[in-house]
User: Fold these one by one.
Assistant:
Number 1:
Amino acid sequence: MKVLLAIIVFLAVAAGAGAVFVWFGCFNVSARVPHWDITVEAIEVLRDRSIIVNSRDVKTPPMTDPALAPKGAAIYNEACIPCHGAPGISARPFSQGLYPAPANLLSGSIQSEWEYGQLYWIVENGLKLTGMPSFGSTYEKNEIAVVIAFVRRLPKISPGEYERMAGSRKE
Ligand code: HEC
């Protein structure tokens, strides 16, 4: 009985402390105040496990036909460039204010970290509590597949090739 009472008192105090924390605005939601390192690590594990598990059911096959590259480039140029930039083209200045910062899609590290289906899932669904939008309601499945095929090649594409494939940046 005493143990039960102790648990109830502990939970009540914890709930009270939580309510005080929230009510007095102790958590700063400002995008200019970074998380603690331990919070960043916890969020990364949460995000990565979520992507790995939820992308297992992706059925859409990769679009590897090189003839589709210009289509992938055109979609990238329209939908991704403001935040991720492209070979020879910087991202829009506003993207510097995003927290977390947009992933670097030009270095090749994202392409070696994620497989095709995982990249597909990220772009179709977006990433909650980050600036990464979901494109599943604005693009067809085959359009997302084509842009992913393009993203996988992106680190090897030169600025000149990019311009030839995509034309100039859409305003
Ligand atoms: C409005 C800004 C914005 C746009 C537009 C955008 N992204 Fe992102 N993207 C982000 C941000 C912010 C992150 C980082 C999320 C994180 O750290 O978890 C991200 C992360 C990613 C990731 C990597 C996930 C990881 O491991 O961090 C991929 C892949 C990606 N974006 C692809 C795309 C593609 C392809 C497009 C276009 C179809 C696109 N993004 C459009 C903001 C954007």
Number 2:
Amino acid sequence: MLPKWFDDWNAKNPTDVYRPAILVGVVGAAVVVAGLLVAYGQPWPTQSLQTGPRGTGMHVPDFVAVAARPDPTVAAYVSPPPVEPAPGEPTAGEAYENAEPLLASLPQSQYDRLVGAMREWTGIPDLLAGEENYQTVVARRMIQMTWLLNDAWSGHTNAYADDGTNAGVNCFTCHRGQPVPAGIWFDPGSTVKVMAGWGGVQNRVTMLSQFTSLPSDALQKYLVEGESIKVHDLESRVEGRASDPDYIAWQHTERTFSLMNYFSNSLGVNCVFCHNSRAFYDPGQVTPQWNNAMLAIQMVLEVNNDYLIPLGEVLPAERLGPLGDAPKIACMTCHKGYQRPMGGFDMISDWPELTAEIVAVGN
Ligand code: HEC
Ligand code: HEC
Ligand code: HEC
């Protein structure tokens, strides 16, 4: 079929056709993929939130699809519209024999609306129905705690009020329709039973160590016992022993990192959301969010020590931790993995009863 001279020439000059074929194939496929990317965009686009000055690499990156996914528990939020009390309407204290004393000066219709909402928010249908149920006693303390969080700690829970956006917290922020909120924690005690001291709390993957080998007792030490989180300065650390109580050893550094991992996971951010990572020790190089976090540390310490730990005497044994300690809160209990709880949703404007102690007003 082909001329004879061609067959001769071919036989004398054998050529490997595979190599050029592979090259053409690879280049061709790359062109097709590039064409698809240009036409349709890349399937996993990311976005990043710049948290510091330009050029410092302070970015919190996220997949667009993940960032756009709303907190699924928010959909269960119910908030009946405010009611206007009728003139001359009785207060709850006048209308009901067993009205909750803290709320008894509210007009009856407002009381009904509030108690109805609290039952939805906590998933307890007979909440505040009677003293004989411990949940009534707990709820009373919870109302006072919510006042504290919205009033004394509004610098944290309503940090952006000056921008005209109220946030704040109500029972749903923590409870999300459940009697026991997600994101509570207990003192883990020794996680390595045969060891005491530092050896007993680290190198074991636990939820409280954020599934790392870092110490599991960070929340207990920093958010209950109020130990100093600071570990970083520019001094040399060649001398000193971990057993010396005044010496900050690498064990302390690991515990601080354990807490910091917890912060990051609770808010769904990374370290540069709060720090310039070249100078963790320098409060002059932090982001504004570091200050929000500073306030939160004090807020959580107060709530745990003054409100939740004393409730351990009221709660039934099955609500207590392995060491018999009361359930405690921290960042996760409100934030649930998001930068702002409920996506920064306004939890208080429709619920002034929960923003500060109710003082009786006539109507
Ligand atoms: C800052 C988070 C937070 C807020 C806000 C909060 N709670 Fe709680 N609540 C907790 C924690 C933590 C517990 C202890 C969990 C347990 O009982 O095991 C708890 C427990 C309770 C319980 C006992 C549940 C049970 O079955 O043991 C009741 C009742 C309750 N809360 C009512 C309320 C009410 C009502 C509000 C709003 C006025 C409220 N809480 C607001 C964190 C919160
Ligand atoms: C939500 C804000 C926030 C995030 C996120 C955060 N930190 Fe922190 N970090 C703080 C605050 C506030 C302090 C100061 C605590 C204090 O001084 O009492 C601190 C303290 C520290 C310290 C000790 C500084 C010193 O003065 O000795 C180190 C180290 C540190 N963080 C590392 C990290 C690392 C690593 C990450 C990421 C895994 C991280 N942080 C994420 C807020 C944050
Ligand atoms: C009682 C509930 C509650 C707890 C507990 C809590 N926060 Fe918050 N936090 C809030 C609310 C509500 C906001 C939103 C404030 C606003 O938008 O005005 C917020 C906002 C923040 C912000 C600012 C976010 C931004 O977009 O600028 C940071 C940072 C923060 N919290 C860190 C923490 C850390 C760290 C902890 C634990 C030590 C913590 N929070 C514990 C309720 C809580």
Number 3:
Amino acid sequence: MKRSLAVTSAILSYGLATVALAAGDIQAGKTKSAACIACHGKWGISSTPDYPNIAGQTELYLVKSLHEFRSGLRKDPSMNRLAEGLSDTDIADLSAYYASLRR
Ligand code: HEC
């Protein structure tokens, strides 16, 4: 109970601060993840230590990270270039998909 309240308020304050957390579509995210496989692996588990595993990460964190890469707040040459081309819907769908996978 305590935990779910904290999560809810985190989502609410994040939504107010930047973007509304639209519910992503897992199936659409799976299709869009073709662009991510080369570095993050087929199921979000990277095959090289240079790239982080993103399977099973929390959805809110994934949404936040992708927005930060897109805006340039968080810097990484590969991710900045990639995230530039993502819409809010793409970010929501990809985040829902990777959050749904097992670590
Ligand atoms: C060319 C390689 C490459 C591709 C393709 C790529 N990424 Fe990444 N990604 C990286 C690297 C490198 C990092 C680590 C960046 C850093 O150190 O901040 C990263 C970090 C991330 C993170 C943050 C993980 C964390 O633990 O903080 C997310 C989320 C992410 N990528 C999602 C995606 C998604 C979704 C796609 C497909 C649309 C994608 N990436 C495609 C290389 C890639």
Number 4:
Amino acid sequence: MIHFFTNRSIVTQLGILIVLLLALWVYGISSMLNQLTEKQLETQAKTIVENAKTHWAWGADYSGIWIKSGTNYAGSYIDRIDAGNGVVFYYKNPARVLKEISDKGIARQNNDSFRMVSLNPSNPENLATGFEADAIKKLSEQLITQKTVGAIYTQDADTFRYVEPVVHTAACLTCHGEPAKAPEGMRRTYGSSNGYYYKEGDVAGAISVTIKFDKWAILSSVINTPLTVLIVFPIIAILAFVYGLSKKISNVATKIGSYQRGQSIGIDAKSIPENTNNEIFILVRAASKLVGIVNGTFSQLSAATRKDTKIDRGNKGE
Ligand code: HEC
């Protein structure tokens, strides 16, 4: 079986090896680039989550935010204070502040956006769907079995999705525990059926990040001049050099192999400098020398044979 390979010409052998090598190399490089893209997207998603948490924390520092508007404000709120003269202040709890920031990102059609979602949301708009829902279920199980939770992500050709869990603390249960104990405004705006009955340590939901990306735009920023000049070009150059060299050796070998007495083998050794270190040149010179010697010996031999024959004939004639 091994002879099947080793009996082929060195050019074929090398050609096969080079093709295999290139295939592995392309596979290796492309999987490395995919990994890079994924790490890059993961980092980006983590930053968005951190940013969202910072906004939430900022809102929580003030136990929510009061916004100023008119009497006919149509937005969502838990409480209101009428300041008179048509000025009314509306109270937004931190999660609501975050929800409005995330809605803003989605409305602006940013390439990346986030949502705070849950399987049992106070606001039905925040219902986790598809991948988010599956991820929250998985994360809830993980929290029970492993006591810690990480994040879950997935990606397709142009969308990266990242889901990081949010866990309820005692402070959250004022609004997400027993509905009877929730602020009256909470029940008025969001009702008494969803978003409640959580316990401390439950997975409340998740910050779900969606990043639209263009893989080629990311990769073209990675495949830059140094990568091409320092890695791609030298490897191609080495392979081309080795291939050319083996082609030369194969050429010489074929010529020597097809040597026929009295015929030139078509190798010109005269132009090769005396002191060359190139083994192929040395081989070519040796071959042409050998052919010269063989041809010389042969003509001497045939000259001698001719003489003998003449004498023989002469003898016979006498
Ligand atoms: C003052 C009441 C209040 C407190 C305290 C509170 N939340 Fe909420 N939470 C809400 C309201 C109201 C919404 C719905 C906001 C909206 O309109 O999208 C909400 C929404 C959420 C959502 C999005 C899904 C949903 O239910 O709509 C999550 C997740 C969440 N809260 C988790 C928490 C966590 C974790 C804490 C504690 C760190 C917390 N909440 C504390 C009132 C509260």
